[in-house]
Please model this.
Amino acid sequence: MLYVVATPIGNLEDISARALRILSEVELIAAEDTRHTLGLLTHFGIKKPLVSYYEHNKLSRGPELLAKLEAGADIALVSDAGLPGICDPGYELIKSCVDAGIEVTVVPGPCACVTALVLSGLPTDGFVFEGFIGTDNKSRRAFFDRLRSEPRTTVCYEAPHRIIKTLEELCRIFTEAGEPARRVAIMRELTKTHEEAVRGSAAELLARFENDPPRGEFVLCIAGTDNTARANIEGPADDDAVRGYYGGLTAGGAAPKEALKQTMERFGLTRNDAYKIIKVSGGNS
Model:
């Protein structure tokens, strides 16, 4: 049997009694990083044979594990943190076992995705998990395009050195959609000593992390689109209406920067488009 065993995502106290029992009873443990898992086993006084199973050896190691399972061995599959099969090649070994008629069971436990979702304070009755945001321009564009019209909470993982870039893009697409206040929650170092959750608009979080460089492991939770909020947008912008609205705000004492922001929200414009229209009439921003 293949046991898919969840391990702590940060706090060692989160491992379950059942997980410890299974890890001590199986004949072999397949680990994403054997050195990391050896540290976990040593902490709990467990001595078992370890083999590596990760992205770059899955094609050769997978069939080896499958053969052992078919011969009757009990094997535990673990990742470096959390539940195997989530954003790691554990899925492929599980599928191979299912296809071969080998029994599989899950020993549930910590999972960064669900932990972050619950902590975010965003709706949990419907959500979509996107895994890691892509690194290439094509996959990132596709991700942000999906966000525009996604009504459910979106959960994703992001590297700390790309958080600023991601928040900048969220600011842009939410402004274009007429939802600049759409909520975002960013969780870092979940269950660890320096666990932190910050919540706000993409613009607010961008300002936060520009002043405090991001560190640690990040999970983003992004609120779904609010169609009722979008109903307040004026629709396709008439240039004269945009200028008139902006002019009315400044005439009433609003600072140019604030007037521009309100105009963008009112007409669902990007900053550049709003500025171009207002500049024609001599407005300042």
In short: The two ends are 66 Å apart (CA to CA). Residues 239-280 form one domain. The longest helix spans residues 163-176.
